[in-house]
């Protein structure tokens, strides 16, 4: 599975915080630590959506082996 830099960082961040509810702001702070918050919070939704999609298709591919 190929991940963008942000998708990889998001996956890593989520794996470091299992069973925790994370806010968009916490995720934005992790993905864009030096950004002046010019990134909108809906950006997190897009990253999560793409990560879910990639994981879903990877799992389907693996289950077909």
UniProtKB/TrEMBL annotation:
CDD domains: trans_reg_C (cd00383)
UniProt KW keywords: DNA-binding, Transcription, Transcription regulation
Pfam families: Trans_reg_C
Keyword DNA-binding listed: yes
Superkingdom of this protein's organism: Bacteria
Record keyword Transcription regulation present: yes
DNA-binding residues (ranges): 1-65
OmpR/PhoB-type domain residues: 1-65
Name of the protein this chain belongs to: Helix-turn-helix domain-containing protein
């Amino acid at each position: 599975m190929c991940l963008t830099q942000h998708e990889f960082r998001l996956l890593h961040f989520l794996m470091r915080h299992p069973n925790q509810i994370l806010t968009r702001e916490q995720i934005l702070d992790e993905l864009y630590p030096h950004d002046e918050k010019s990134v909108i919070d809906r950006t997190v939704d897009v990253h999560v959506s793409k990560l879910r999609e990639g994981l879903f298709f990877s799992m389907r591919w693996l289950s077909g082996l």
